[in-house]
């Protein structure tokens, strides 16, 4: 990025910054206020709804457990130990209670020593002794006990509800295994939304029912378990990088916690819709302000850049014109000063040649050397006169003759002068003419000299075996003629100096450095312009531009 572009980009950013500060601050304040109010309202709404759901589901689970406890108590106190340990009678009792609730897997009567006195169920547990099981000692101590989920002799996750019956001096326990699938379904029925979850966890963070995201049953969850009493606590946590909000409540008959989690983003309520619409309108307003600011500053800076570029072109043109005028005067003086000594030198050389021709020096071997020296003097004098002639042509300001010119025909005519030279060097001249190119009014002789010089330079750049391309086209109110060579191109560091007088890249003695300067001066007199473009390693293209005068368009 150039220094000029950086300056305008900096100005643009400053203008846009000032505009946006005054225009967007009100939008920002309004958006912050609406977001704050919305967030507060939404949080209260979600938390209140979640507390209600968790409280109701806790009551449902407590009622389920309470009904199971009541069933077992009624059963235990309805029969004595001798009657209930009758396996057939216990089987009929089990069938009866299953027809009513369907939540028990098996029933067992366990005596005070931990032995199974009677058992009804799908497992072979008649001979097992539970004296060493912690739940047995707890039910014997408390009278009623609901265990955590454990594997046990059944080797699958389950939990039990047990009640103790004191019959005189005899104590025995009625134990039932709860169907974990039915219980899990009861818990999961409260699950809310696609990302929601519901599960039970004990105080040691061991899952008592399986969870969608927290883990399988009997695994330790990463979720913290808050210390709560009878209230419902609302906590926030992360699950798979999603923000979740959870309601936690303690069950009344156990130390289990009911956790119901949901994603706040799934609560699509009128508040969310209102916030979306409001933020959308604010964003639209901000984009409109931003767009207007961008377009306004862009238009302003474009005009400033155009004015700056026009001023730079005018300054460069004036500077080049002044430089060419000064160099023209200098060239005229230098040419005249050199021409006088050259005339004297040529006359002296002619006098020496006359003496040699008259035979006054005889046939000495030195005569041949003298003849060769005189010839060298003539050759170099002629070369010097050619240079001074070009310098005088560079300085001379010939007023152009106005006549109608067909550029395409003029190019073909000029190319005929170079046909043999191009053929000798194996260089192909290719034409790409605009057949509808309008005629122009200019000086045909001076324009032909410009074209001839450009094509000669192109042939010199190619040297041998290449392509010289000449193209004409119409561009707005101008006609353009481009001469492109397939040579090595012009180094980037020399592009800005090719039109300067006496600048040349040819070897010493092969160029004067005035050809392109004369072309530049001629195009200025004709009211046109000449430019050069040379991508690295892709040859060079010289383009001359001349205006189409009114009345010349077809």
Can you tag this structure with a few keywords?
about 550 residues, alpha+beta, Beta-Lactamase, Helix Hairpins, Heat Shock Protein 90, 3 domains, five-stranded antiparallel sheet, five-stranded mixed sheet, 11 helices, about 50% helix, rod-shaped
Helix and strand layout, with pairings?
Elements: H1 3-78, H2 81-84, H3 87-100, E1 104-111, E2 116-120, H4 134-142, E3 144-146, E4 159-167, E5 170-178, H5 180-188, E6 197-201, E7 233-239, E8 242-250, E9 257-262, H6 270-358, H7 365-395, E10 403-405, H8 407-417, H9 419-424, E11 427-432, E12 440-442, H10 444-462, E13 466-475, E14 478-485, H11 515-525, E15 529-533, E16 541-547
Parallel strand pairs: 11-13
Antiparallel strand pairs: 1-2, 1-5, 3-4, 4-5, 6-9, 7-8, 8-9, 10-12, 13-14, 14-16, 15-16
């Amino acid at each position: 990025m150039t220094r000029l572009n950086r300056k305008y980009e900096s100005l643009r950013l400053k203008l846009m910054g000032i505009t946006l500060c005054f225009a967007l601050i009100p939008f920002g304040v309004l958006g912050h206020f609406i977001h704050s109010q919305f967030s507060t309202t939404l949080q209260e709404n979600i938390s209140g709804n979640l507390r209600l759901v968790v409280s109701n589901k806790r009551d449902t689970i407590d009622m389920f457990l309470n009904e199971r406890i009541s069933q077992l108590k009624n059963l235990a106190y309805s029969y004595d130990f001798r009657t209930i340990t009758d396996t057939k009678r216990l089987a009929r009792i089990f069938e009866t209670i299953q027809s009513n609730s369907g939540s028990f897997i098996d029933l067992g009567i366990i005596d005070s020593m931990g032995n199974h006195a009677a058992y009804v169920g799908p497992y072979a547990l008649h001979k097992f002794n539970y004296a060493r099981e912690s739940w047995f000692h707890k039910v014997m101590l408390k009278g009623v006990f609901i265990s955590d989920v454990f594997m046990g002799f059944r080797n699958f996750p389950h939990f039990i509800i047990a009640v103790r019956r004191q019959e005189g001096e005899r104590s025995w326990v009625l134990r039932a295994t709860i169907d974990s699938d039915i219980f899990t379904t009861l818990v999961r029925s409260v699950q809310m939304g696609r990302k929601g979850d519901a599960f039970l966890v004990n105080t040691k963070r061991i899952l008592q029912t399986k969870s969608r995201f927290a883990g399988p049953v009997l695994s330790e969850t990463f979720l913290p378990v808050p210390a709560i009493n009878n209230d419902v606590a609302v906590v926030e946590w992360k699950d798979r990088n999603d923000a979740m909000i959870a309601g936690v409540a303690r069950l009344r008959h156990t130390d289990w916690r009911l956790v119901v989690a949901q994603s706040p983003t799934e609560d699509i309520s009128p508040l969310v819709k209102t916030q979306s619409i409001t933020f959308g309108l604010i964003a639209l307003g901000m984009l409109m302000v931003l767009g207007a600011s961008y377009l306004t500053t862009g238009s302003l800076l474009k005009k400033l850049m155009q004015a700056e570029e026009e001023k730079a072109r005018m300054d460069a043109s004036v500077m080049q014109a002044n430089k060419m005028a000064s160099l023209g005067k200098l060239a005229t003086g230098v040419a005249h000063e050199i021409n006088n000594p050259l005339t004297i030198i040529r006359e002296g050389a002619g006098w020496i040649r006359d003496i040699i021709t008259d035979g006054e020096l005889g046939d000495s071997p030195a005569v041949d050397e003298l003849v060769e020296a005189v010839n060298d003097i003539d050759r170099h004098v002629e070369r010097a006169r050619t240079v001074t002639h070009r310098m005088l042509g560079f300085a001379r300001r010939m007023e152009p003759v106005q006549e109608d010119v067909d550029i395409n025909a003029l190019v073909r005519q000029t190319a005929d002068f170079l046909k043999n030279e191009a053929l000798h060097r194996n260089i192909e001249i290719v034409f790409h003419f605009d057949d509808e190119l309008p005629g122009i009014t200019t000086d045909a002789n001076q324009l032909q000299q410009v074209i001839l010089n450009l094509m000669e330079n192109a042939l010199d750049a190619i040297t041998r075996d290449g392509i010289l391309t000449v193209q004409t086209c119409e561009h707005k109110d101008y006609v353009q003629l481009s001469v492109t060579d397939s040579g090595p191109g012009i180094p980037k560091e020399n592009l800005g100096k090719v039109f300067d007088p006496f600048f040349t890249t040819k070897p010493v003695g092969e160029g004067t450095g005035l050809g392109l300067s004369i072309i530049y001066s001629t195009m200025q007199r004709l009211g046109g312009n000449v430019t050069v473009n040379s991508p690295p390693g892709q040859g060079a293209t010289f383009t001359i531009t001349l205006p189409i005068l009114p009345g010349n368009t077809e």
